[in-house]
Write a structure and sequence with these properties.
By secondary structure, the protein is α/β, with parallel strands linked by helices. The chain has a single domain, classed as P-loop containing nucleotide triphosphate hydrolases (Rossmann fold), CATH 3.40.50.300. Helices cover 37% and strands 27% of the residues. The chain has a six-stranded mixed sheet with strand order 6-7-8-3-9-10, with helices on both faces. A four-stranded antiparallel sheet has the order 2-1-4-5, covered by helices on one side. Strand 7, helix 7 and strand 8 form a beta-alpha-beta unit. Helix 4 packs antiparallel against helix 6. The longest helix has 14 residues. The radius of gyration is 17 Å and the shape is globular. The protein binds adenosine-5'-triphosphate and magnesium ion.
Length: 230
C-alpha cells in the first residue's frame, strides 16, 4: 500500500534518515518507534511529501509518488496528523471540522459519523480549538484527517502529553478504525506499550536507521525494549 524504500532524508546538508525502509501493507497498524531525535517525524514528512528525500523512493499502491506534491498524495488517499495536533486555535471545533468537510462531497455526512466515533468532541463543538485539552485536540486532529476518507492515516505521536485514560480511548479508536481492511495506519509512537498493543507490525528507528522490525503483540515487547536500549 505505502512503501518507504531506502529513504535518505535530511535538512540542508545534514542527513537525518539514512536509508530507512518501512512497508505499510493494506489494513492494520504499522508502528515506528524510536527515541527523541531518531528521525521519526523526518521520515513521515518525506512520506507525505513535505521533505524531498535525497535518495530512495515513496510508493503508493506500487506507483512512485516520490516527486508528487503533498496535496496530490492526499488526493490519492494519504492523511497526516502532525505531531502537536495542529488545528486552527482561533476557530471552534465545529469550524475546524467544517473547513475540511466543505472540501468533500460527503463531508457533512462523514463528520456526523466521526462525531459518533469521538463523542467527546460533541461536548466542545463551540469551543475554540486552542482551548481544548490535549486529548480533545488530538481527537479533533484525527477526526479532521478522517473526514477526507483516507486509505492510509499517518499519526505522529498521538499520545504525546495525554493522560493515560485518554490514551486508552485513542488506542481503542485506532484499533476500531483499522478493524476492517479499508484503512491502514502508520503510527509513530514513543510509548512502546501503547504502540505494540495496537500494532500488527513494528519498526524501531535509531539514529535514522531501522535497527529492528517484526510483528507486534506480546512477544515483541522484549525485542523492542532491547532494540531501544541501544
Ligand atoms: N527543520 C529542521 N532543521 C534542521 N534539523 C532538524 C529539523 N527538524 C528536525 N531536525 C533534526 O533532525 C533530527 C531528527 O528529528 P525528528 O524530528 O525527525 O526526530 P523524532 O524522532 O521525530 O523525535 P521526537 O520523538 O522528539 O519527535 C534531530 O536531530 C533534529 O534536531
Ligand atoms: Mg517527532
Amino acid at each position: 500500500m505505502l512503501e518507504l524504500d531506502d529513504l535518505h532524508v535530511g535538512y540542508g546538508r545534514t542527513t537525518v534518515v539514512h536509508g530507512a525502509t518501512v512497508h505499510v501493507p493494506e489494513g492494520g497498524i504499522t508502528a515506528v518507534m524510536g527515541h527523541n531525535g531518531a528521525g521519526k517525524t523526518t521520515l513521515l514528512r518525506a512520506a507525505v511529501g513535505l521533505l524531498a528525500p535525497s535518495r530512495g523512493r515513496v510508493l503508493l499502491d506500487g506507483d512512485d509518488v516520490t516527486r508528487l506534491r503533498p496535496h496530490r498524495r492526499v488526493r490519492r488517499g494519504l492523511a497526516y496528523v502532525p505531531q502537536g495536533q495542529q488545528s486552527f486555535p482561533q476557530l471552534t471545533t465545529a469550524e475546524n471540522l467544517q473547513l475540511v468537510a466543505d472540501t468533500r462531497p460527503r463531508g457533512r455526512a462523514r463528520t456526523d459519523e466521526l462525531l459518533d466515533l469521538f463523542p467527546a468532541l460533541r461536548e466542545v463543538m463551540s469551543r475554540k480549538a486552542g482551548l481544548l485539552s490535549g486529548g480533545q485536540r488530538q481527537q479533533l486532529a484525527i477526526a479532521r484527517a478522517l473526514i477526507t476518507e483516507p486509505r492510509v492515516l499517518i499519526l505522529d505521536e498521538p499520545t504525546e502529553g495525554i493522560q493515560p485514560s485518554v490514551v486508552a480511548q485513542i488506542e481503542r479508536t485506532i484499533a476500531d478504525l483499522t478493524s476492517g481492511d479499508d484503512l491502514s495506519v502508520l503510527l509513530v509512537e514513543q510509548h512502546i506499550g501503547f504502540a505494540l498493543s495496537v500494532a500488527d507490525r513494528y519498526y524501531v528507528l535509531a539514529s535514522g536507521r531501522v535497527t529492528s522490525s517484526g510483528d507486534g503483540g506480546d512477544d515483541s515487547h522484549a525485542t523492542v525494549r532491547a532494540a531501544m536500549a541501544i
